[in-house]
Batch of 2 targets.
Target 1
Amino acid sequence: MNILVTGGAGYIGSHTASAVEKSGHTPIVVDNFSTGHRWAVGSRLVLEGDLADESLVRLALRKYRPHAVIHFAASAYVGESIKEPRKYFWNNVVNTLKLLDAMTDLGVRTFVYSSTCATYGLPQRVPVSEDQPQCPVNPYGESKLFVERMLRWYQEAYDLRWVALRYFNAAGASEHHGECHDPETHLIPLAIQAALTGSILSIFGTDYPTEDGTAIRDYIHVDDLASAHLLAVEYLLKDGASRAFNLGSGRGYSIRQVVKMVEQVSRRNVSCRDAERRPGDPPVLVAENRAAADILGWTPRKSSLREIVESAWLWHSKTAEQRITPDVG
């Protein structure tokens, strides 16, 4: 079957497009390459353009008649969203609205949505379950929650069937693709960069009420995330009820634990400096992931901290040894 993958040249989107292909289905990638990478698409069918271009979206839906849409295309920097909220509401809300309208008009009614644990804001309890209140503390999380709310009404009015997958901390790499953001804001690639280059890693907050004073996060391997999207498509096509699922390993690691693991795997020192907490950062974010296991049959298979860091180290160190940026070729 054909599956339309918006943002399929990005970090998680390209891994999911690869998983779709390996499962025997055909991914049709739509990406404007503003943050995605051409090398991440490979030989897959790709339509270059923005979801703001309604004619392109409708052409893709009419021509390829996908059985489902997996929607990744979005702006995804928390700090930037605070400085430029209108960018986030245009890209993440308005453009998604255009996509949903095109889908419902053309009879495509299976939708898997890339959401985020940022919709919870500061959680009331940990681990975080899907029924906790959603109170975002930044425009990024608010924009994602806005779409989740739209989906409920689109189902009621237009029979759109959907799954929202709330990621915790995507991490790790496959053989051919790892995290390559500009700017890079995620801990594991920044720690690896410090190990490779001698740069200094900032630790934002060392006075949290945790064992070592640094924030604790739940890391999930990008390949495990990709597999969840396929399972969500299969679940919906078998008449599964629309709902949200948390995607996390169910285990948390502190920043210092992550840094230590990078040092162990790389056999290099990671220089760190203490910095002030970032506003809105909760002390602990760990997923309750039983719903995804029980209902989707999803199991994170590569998401131990060591496996995540080893896979990321292999990819980043390989690109460094080749003395190229990953976007060349």
Target 2
Amino acid sequence: MTDSNKKSASNLVLRVMTALVLFPLALLLIWWPGRIPFMICILIVCALASKEYYAIARAAGAAVESVAGTVLGLVMVAMVFMFQIEQSFYLHLLLLLFMVPLIHLFRRNYSLTGLGATLLGVVYVGLLPALLAWLYFRSVSGPGAVTLLVLAIVFSDSGAYFVGRFLGRHKLWPSVSPKKTREGAVGGLLAAVLAMGLLWWLENTFLASWMEGRFSLQVFNSLGHYLVAGFLLALVGQFGDLVESFMKRDAGVKDSGTLLPGHGGILDRCDGILFGIPVLVYLLYLL
């Protein structure tokens, strides 16, 4: 076995072991009684992802206000805990976004590129996690909706990784991410759809009676809705992965961080979930 193959096999083992720890932990936090553990988790993830994003932005040459952007993002998430879905919540969000150019002005940071990168960070790793927290608190099915999102993206990522690794032949978008393949993309879509079918089956069989009176896992009303949600979430999740890839490529970095062995950084693991959040909210509104 060559050194390259040994490194690839070692990375695969690390990736699987990390996933076996993170996935059950994520489900435990989602379904833990009370709101505080989940909120603390979202705040920590938001802070770490913000740190990684602004490091990428600085490496790309953008004069960002990273501390201000991170704080504003954390305040957005904290406001969900305080205001949840009250009308004032949306007004506060607009006020926080309006503060970004003012911070650049008062700090005499007159870089338009830096202003855009700071604002993108507040939305990307601040507003979107806040929207996830809002989704979690929206109703009794909130934890079920977050579980559905995590399952769809995790199965999509895993399907794309393993199908691409063993069967991938045709590059998906080589100028953005040289390792991703069309076969892997299709595998990710199919894996997410199958996961949603399995989730629907579990909800409507033996889990239905066991969960009654404890919590609600049901998010949509029909199998078709679940399959459509799985396909769209996997699709937009893959686009989220590509978007982060081109940001890293522009900055000249391989991973957003090294916190998660075999996966890279927090942002590398959550990029698909971040893009999937508004899509799931929109699907819930439509369906």
